Amino acid sequence: MTSSAAIDALDVTSATSATSATSATGATGVTGARRGERRWARAGALVGALALAGALGGCGGCPREACGAARPAALPAAPPLPPPPLPPPSRPPLEVRGGEHLAGLHPALERRARLLYERAEEEGVQLRFISGYRPYQLKAGGRRAGRGGAAGAVASWHNFGLAFDVNLQGRAGLGDALKHLREDEARWARVGALAADLGLTWGKQWGQEEIFHFEWHPGQPDAIRAPTLNALKASAEGGDLRAGYRGAWRALQSREGAGDRAEEVSR
Ligand SMILES: [Zn+2]
């Protein structure tokens, strides 16, 4: 094969596989240019015929046979899309000071507690969790005493894993924190604002001694008075406000749907 015949053969083969490659290696008496013209003309006629066949019976964009091979008669139904995942943590979880107090909290509140901690940390306000779930206890006289909740309450949202307390890192305890309240005012104000963004209720509205307290109970009142307590007790598994307290979470308005993911826990 001469070099021009070889190039001619390559051109024709690449133009259309319907043209015989063996004929391209034929007589050398005709110039490569002329053979090329004839074969391009044959290729063009073939392409035109295929396009006409497609226009008559195919999809209009390609020949009928190719359509039949590539497009099944009925496409299978697409599987339903999975629900959007929760946003992944922006980084490995921080080692949380007092993190043991988060055990027993409602998962949605625990997530908010961790976000509060992280966001405060980003602003240079270091926190320490000092309380979380606390078992329900009836005091003498049938009324629950102790801190943590709105005035007049007979139980605390702590008893249902729906409240936590924090202190500023470096303050030795509640007394020390209250003693330095004026000095720490700006830092507490930031913590309160961040908590509000997360949908938490801040106890400071009930007095400075509740500045450590945050709670979350969508659809329920701040103060657990007798009717609320009875409803929570009825929701608790086995009516047990201690071992079965998680059952009371059913009394909450569900915020674990799209809204919770999209607007409240977004980073
Ligand atoms: Zn509290």
Describe, in plain words, how this protein is organized in 3D.
This protein has 267 residues and is mostly helical. The protein has two domains: 3-70, no CATH class; 99-264, Muramoyl-pentapeptide Carboxypeptidase, domain 2. Helices cover 38% and strands 6% of the residues. The chain has nine helices and four strands, in the order αααααββααββαα. It has helices at residues 3-15, 21-24, 32-57, 64-70, 107-122, 174-179, 185-197, 226-235, 258-264, and strands spanning 127-131, 163-168, 201-202, 213-215. A four-stranded antiparallel beta sheet has the order 1-2-4-3, with helices on one face. Helix 1 (3-15) packs parallel to helix 3 (32-57) and helix 5 crosses helix 7 (185-197). The radius of gyration is 37 Å and the shape is globular. 22% of the residues are buried. It binds zinc ion (ZN). Zinc ion binds next to strand 2.
Key descriptive features of the protein:
binds zinc ion; four-stranded antiparallel sheet; mainly alpha; Muramoyl-pentapeptide Carboxypeptidase, domain 2; 6% strand; disordered N terminus; 267 residues; 38% helix; 4 strands; disordered C terminus; 2 domains
